[in-house]
Amino acid sequence: MKNISKIYKTRVSVVSFVLFFLIAGEFAFAGDTDLFGDKVNGSINLKYRSRATDQDEDVDFFADLRLNVQAMKTLSFNLDAREIIDLDENLKWEGSYVFDEVYKTRDNLKLYAASLDWKPENSFIRTLRVGRQYSYENYSFHFDGLRIETKEFEKAANLKAYFYGGLPVRYFSSPHYPPRFDCSACHSAGGPKLSTESDGSLYGGGIQIRPWKTTRFSLDYTLLSDDTLYGDIDTDYSSLNVWHNFTDNVQMQLKYAMLEGEGTDYKAMFNINCPDNNANIQIVYFKQLETLFNLPLEFDPFSYALNESNPYQNLGVYAYKGFGDKFFMSFGGDSRTVSKNDQNDHNLEYSHYWVAPGCQDIGLKGLSASVSLDFWNTDEDDITTYGANVNYLWMKKLKASVGTSFAVLKYDYITGKEQTDVRSYFVKLSYNVTDFLKIYSDYQFEDDEFDTYDTFQVGTSLEF
Amino acid sequence: MKKDNLIVTIVVCLTVLAFAVAGCAVFKKMGSHASFNHSIHVQNGVDCDTCHQTTKTGDLAGLPDLNVCLACHTGETAGQPEPRVAAFFGRDNTAEWSKKTLFSSEVIFSHQKHLGAGFACAECHKGVDVSTKPSGALMPTMETCIGCHKDTTGAENCATCHQRLSKNNPPDSHKMNWEYGHGQIARQGESALEDNKCYLCHKQSDCTDCHNNNPPKSHNNNWRQVGHSISAHIDRAKCEACHTTDFCARCHAETAPRTHIAGWSGSPAYRHCNYCHIPVESQEGCSTCHKSATHSGAPSRPNTAFHNTGATCTNCHSVTTLTHPINGDNCESCHPLE
Predict the structure, then answer these.
(1) A205-237: b or e for each residue (b if 16 or more CB lie within 10 Å)?
(2) Is B109 domain-assigned?
(3) Under a CB-based contact definition with an 8 Å cutoff, are residues A60 and A86 in contact?
(4) Residue B288: closest CA among chain A residues belongs to which residue?
(5) Which residues pair with A284 in a beta bridge?
C-alpha cells in the first residue's frame, strides 16, 4: 500500500508539472494572461525539492494557489492554499530521520485564506468579510469567521470601527493540547495522528479616530476563549495605539497593551526617513512589564518549550544609508536587559549587532554584491554569522546568485563551552520567461557537525 | 553586559543626534518658504493662471516672477517692492517651491492636458481658493488622481503616472533592508498598510507566500535540529513573526532530537537528555518533551529498608551495569520512592 501511494503521488506531481507547463505555455506564447479578464487574477506556484545526506533523503512537492475573483462590483472571493505532497514517505517514528519536520515532510493541505468580501457602495459598512482570514489591527489573528469594518465618518474625526469573531485557526494544535509525548497509549504505532481542530473562539473589535491628518488613535480589544487540557481559559487583550507623522519623513508610534486587565507591555517606535540623503533610521523601544506563561496560543511566548517569559526591556536601532547610486549599507543593534531575579536559561540579557554593506552596478550593470555580519552575545551563548553573496541580473530576465555563509554557535550546557560550526554554499538561478511566467532552480550545500546536506529545488510560477 | 548597554546607548544617542541635525537642515529648508495667501488673491478676482502662467501651456504650473507681482504690488519706491512681495521672493528675487507643495519629478503630470480637458484648478487643489498659506494639504493625493483614473489602480498601470515606480521598481523604502524593516510597518495594523499604500503592489496572500517560501537565511538544516534552540533561548520574540507555541509543541512531541539516537543504553553521557536539558530534575529538563511523566519507563525506588538506609546507589548499581548513563548522583530525579 505504501509503494502504491508513493507511485501515485509521484505521478500526480509529474502530471501537475506537465499540465502546468502546457497551460503556462499557452499564456506565454500567446502573450496573454487575460483568459479570465480582469475579474480573475492570482498565481500558481509549483516546486520540487530534494534533500539528502549520506544516510537519509527527502523529496517533497509543493503547490501553491492564490486566487482572487471579482464576482461582482461589490463582491469578491479570495483563496490562498498550499498542498505539500511527501514523495518519499520517509518517516522513521522509531528511529531518527534527519528531515523529519512537522509538515514539510508529510502530506499536508493548508488553507491560509478563503473568504468572501462584500464592499457595499452606499453603506456605512466598508467591508464585510466571511471565511478564513487574517486580522492585523490589534494583534495578528488567523481565524474562520466574520469581520466587519465601517467607513470613516469625516464629521466625527474620521471615526471608524471594526468587529470580528470566529474560531482561531491552529494548524498544529489538538484537543489534547498541550500534547502528551507518550501518545502510544491512545494512538497506534506509526505515529500519532494529532488533530488540528481548534477548540477555542475569539471575538474582538476596536475604534480608530484621525482627528487631524497626521495623527491617528486606536483602541482595540480581543477576547480569546481557549479549551485546553486544563480547562477553559478566557483571556482578554487590549491596546491603545497612537501614530503621529511629525513630517512626511518622521513618524512615531506609541503602544500600550494590557492582558487580563493588567499592563503587559508598551512600545515606542520612531522612523526617520531622509530621502535626500538616501538614509533611514528606525528606533524601537519595547518593555514587557509582567511574566507571561501558559497563555492561549495566540499570546503564548512559547512557554511549552521555553517556560515563562520574564519582564525585560529592549532597545533596537536599525539604519540604512546609501552612498551614491552604487554603494549602500544597513546596520543596527539590539540590546536587552533583564533584572537579576528574572534571568535564567530562557530569559537572557543580550546584545545583538549586525552590519551589511553592499554595492551594485560595479563594473557591470546588473551585478551586485553584499556581505553580512551578525553577532549575538549573552553571558552564556554566542552566535556569530557572516556571509556574502553575489547577484547578477541580465536584461531583467535572468538572475543568478552565488553565496556562502558561516555560523558559529557557542552554547554552554553541562560540559561547558560547546561550539557548532555551520558552513553553507548556494547557487540560484531564476529566469523570467515572460512577465508572468518564471522558472527557478537552486542548490545548497551545508556542512555541520552532524552531516553534510545537499538541497536541490526547481520550481515555476505563473501569474494570471 | 552593563558596559555593552552603555556603549549601545551612547551609539544610539549619537546616531539620533546626527540624524536630527541632518533632519533639521531638511526641516529648515522645507519651512523657509514664506506664506502666500491664495484666499485674498481669489477674492480680489485674480485668476489662477495670472500668476501660474504655464498651466495652460505646459506640464508645470510655474511660479510668477517678480514682475508679475509688481504689476499689482506697485507699492512704494521702484526697486523696493512691498514687504509682502519682498518676503515671498527673498533677497535674490526668486521664488521657490516648498517641498511640501512639489510633486516628485518621478511623477508624470501635465497641467495643460488636465486644464484642456476642462478640469478646474480647485477640483484637484481642493481648498486652494480659501487657503491663507501654502501647505501639503493643497496638493492632490494619489487617491485624488485614482478617483478619476480608476482604470489605473493596481500595479500593472503604474506607468500612467510614474516614470520609474512600478511592480518591478519598488519604492526607495524597499531598498533600505526592507526584508528586515518591513515587519515594523506591517505590525502597525491594516490602517498603516493603507497609509503606506502597500495594497498597490501587494495582496495579503503575498505575505503568506513570502513567509512560506523565503524563510530567514538562518533556517538551515542545522537550525532545524540544533541552532533554533540557541536562538530561542536568546530571543524568543523573533520567532513570533512566523511561529506559535503549538508549532514547537507538535515538533517536540513527534520528532526525536538528533542526540536521542543509538545512545539511550550504554553510550557516552552526552547522549542522555542532559546533553541539552539541564538540570534534569527541574521543570526545564526532560519535561520540555516529556510533559506528564516523571519518567514513564523508570522503575521507582523500592520502599525497603535497604533502599532507605541512605546507601549510595552506585555501590550496587554501577556505571557498567546500568542501562543508561548516570545523571550525576541524584538518582531520585527519575526513580522516585515507590
Answers:
(1) bbebbbeeeeebbbebebebbbebeeeeeebeb
(2) yes
(3) yes
(4) A305
(5) A269, A316
B98 in a structural domain: yes
Give, for all 338 residues of chain B, the pLDDT tens digit.
Answer: 444 455 555 555 555 555 544 444 444 444 444 567 888 888 888 888 888 888 878 887 777 777 778 777 766 555 555 666 666 666 566 666 655 555 666 788 888 888 888 888 888 888 888 888 776 667 787 777 877 776 555 545 677 787 777 666 777 667 655 776 677 667 666 666 666 777 777 776 777 777 777 788 788 888 888 788 888 888 888 888 788 877 887 777 666 666 555 444 333 434 444 444 444 444 445 545 554 444 445 666 666 666 665 667 777 776 566 666 555 556 766 676 66
Which of B23, B203, B250 lies at the smallest CB-CB distance from A102? B250
Closest to B326 (Cα-Cα) out of B290, B283, B274, B284: B274
Residue type, B170: P
How far apart CA B29 and CA B236 sit, in angstroms, is: 44
| Cβ contact, residue pair B180, A315, below 8 Å | no
How far lies B147's CA from each of A76, A127, B123, B144, in Å? 21, 19, 11, 5
Picking from A300, A307, A310, A245, the residue whose alpha carbon sits closest to that of residue A271 is: A245
How many domains does one find in chain B?
1
CA distances, A128 to each of A40, A145, A458, B192 (Å): 20, 11, 39, 19
Beta strands at A416-432 and A398-413: parallel, antiparallel or unpaired: antiparallel
Give the residue numbers spanning the domain of B42.
38-151
Whether residue B244 is contained in a domain is answered as no
Phi, psi of B154, deg, nearest 5? 100, 155
Query: In angstroms, rounded to a whole number, what is the distance separating the alpha carbons of residues A301 and B243?
Result: 10
State the Cα–Cα distance between residues B318 and B326, nearest whole angstrom: 9
Q: Which of A269, A333, A356 sits opposite B8 (nearest CB)?
A: A333
∠ CA A313-A371-A392, nearest 5°, is 130
Residue whose C-alpha is closest to residue B168's, from B182, B149, B155, B151? B155
ipTM of predicted assembly, 2 dp: 0.83
Q: Is residue B135 part of a domain?
A: yes
C-alpha cell at B280: 534534569
Contact: B19, A271; criterion CB under 8 Å:
no
| Contact with chain B for residue A320, Cβ under 8 A | yes
**What is the nearest CA distance from B197 to chain A, expressed in angstroms?**
14
Per the CB < 8 A criterion, the answer to whether B276 and B257 are in contact is yes
Secondary structure of chain B as H, E, C letters: CHHHHHHHHHHHHHHHHHHHHHHHHHHHHHHCCCCCCHHHHHHCCCCHHHHCCCCCCCCCCCCCCHHHHHCCCCCCCCCCCCHHHHHHHCCCCCCCCCHHHCCCCCECCCHHHHHHCCCCHHHHCCCHHHCCCCCHHHCCCHHHHHHHCHHHCCHHHHHHCECCCECCECCHHHHCCHHHHHHHHHCCCHHHHHHCCHHHCCCHHHHHHHHHHCCCCCCCHHHHHHHHHHHHHHCHHHHHHCCCHHHHHHHHHHCCCCCCCCCCCCCCHHHCHHHCCCCCCCCCCHHHCCCCCCCCCCCCECCCCHHHCCCCHHHCCCCCCCCCCCCCCCHHHCCCEC
A297 and chain B: CB distance < 8 Å anywhere?
yes
Residues 6+ apart with CB under 8 A from A100: A91, A92, B254, B255
User: Smallest Cα–Cα separation from A238: which of A215, A216, A207?
Assistant: A207
B50 residue type, one letter: T
- Written as nine digits, the cell of A322 is 546609501
A-B contacts (CB, under 8 Å): 279
Give the Cα separation of A462 and A439 in Å (integer). Answer: 9
The three grid cell numbers given for residue A20, joined into one nine-digit string: 502546468
Measured distance CA(A220)–CA(A203) in Å, rounded: 11
Q: What is the pTM of this model?
A: 0.73
